[in-house]
Structures are given as C-alpha cells and as structure tokens.
Amino acid sequence: MPQKITKSAKDIVKAALGDVEPICAEEALALLDQDTHVFVDLRDGTEQAKTGTIPGAVASSRGMMEFHIDPESPAHKPAFNQDKTYIFYCASGGRSALAAKVAMDMGLAPVVNLSGGVAAWTKAGGPLS
C-alpha cells in the first residue's frame, strides 16, 4: 500500500509562513550594514556559489542549521549566539520559513524570514558577493 501523505510541502510552508514574521527585501536592504541583524543563508553551497550571498551572511545550509544553532553541537557557529535579529533567507522564501520556524522552536529569537528570498533581494537592488 502506498504512503498516505496528509500534508503537502505547500501546506507546511504555508503554516511556517504564518508563524514567522516576514520582512520585505526593501526593509532588509536598509538593515544590511546594521550591527543589530544577522543574515542567514539557508541555501546549499552549490546555490550560494552560483548566485553569491548577501554580504556578511552566515552560511548555514538547511540540512545543518540545527547543529549550527545548538551551542552543545560540535558544528555550532558562534554567529548564532548573539543578541541580534536573525534574517533567514533562501532562494524564494519557502525553505527559510521552514528553517526559521525550527530555529524559533529551538529558542533562537528574534527570527524573521526574507519574503521572496534572494530573488526579491536582487530585484530590490540588493548586492550579492
């Protein structure tokens, strides 16, 4: 008997988008050089190499993020142990919403999701390096 999937990927992304505060690209762009925010790139290394990253962003692929956040993990990244607002982003905003929800469940706060991801960022004139 085949698996009975009860929630689609679209359903869980929609739920995460409802739980995580959004930030538009224009608002995020104004925060680029602020010491009060940390941009977190949830895309994998191949995507990052292809398009570049937001300058100064912490690279934390979706598959490793929980380990990067956890201070007890050998893979912990100190960038996640700051009293700052974390702006999560991916290519279009879906994966980063899922990741932001998990990060919030882990206790990381405040966390916001870049609506539209890198696509919206570049459309708003945001730099990539």
Question: Could you walk me through the main structural features you see in this protein, from its secondary elements to its overall organization?
Answer:
This protein has 129 residues and is α/β, with parallel strands linked by helices. The protein has one domain: Rhodanese-like domain (Oxidized Rhodanese, domain 1). It has helices spanning 9-19, 25-30, 45-51, 65-69, 94-106, 117-123, and strands spanning 21-23, 37-41, 58-59, 85-89, 111-114. The radius of gyration is 15 Å and the shape is globular. The termini are far apart. The mean pLDDT is 97.
* CATH fold call: Oxidized Rhodanese, domain 1
Q: What is the count of DSSP helices, taking H or I runs of 4+ residues? A: 6
SSE ordering: HEHEHEHEHEH
Mean pLDDT score: 97
Question: Ends: how far apart?
Answer: 49 Å
Radius of gyration: 15 Å
Report the helical percentage: 25-40%
How large is the share of residues in beta strands? 5-15%
Shape: globular
CATH class: Alpha Beta
What's the architecture in CATH terms?
Answer: 3-Layer(aba) Sandwich
Biggest sheet: strand arrangement: 1-5-4-2-3
Largest sheet: number of strands, sense, barrel closure: 5 strands, parallel
The helix/strand class is alpha/beta
SSE layout:
Layout: H1 9-19, E1 21-23, H2 25-30, E2 37-41, H3 45-51, E3 58-59, H4 65-69, E4 85-89, H5 94-106, E5 111-114, H6 117-123
Parallel strand pairs: 1-5, 2-3, 2-4, 4-5
Question: Concise description?
Answer:
This protein has 129 residues and is an alpha/beta fold. The chain has helices at residues 9-19, 25-30, 45-51, 65-69, 94-106, 117-123; strands at residues 21-23, 37-41, 58-59, 85-89, 111-114.
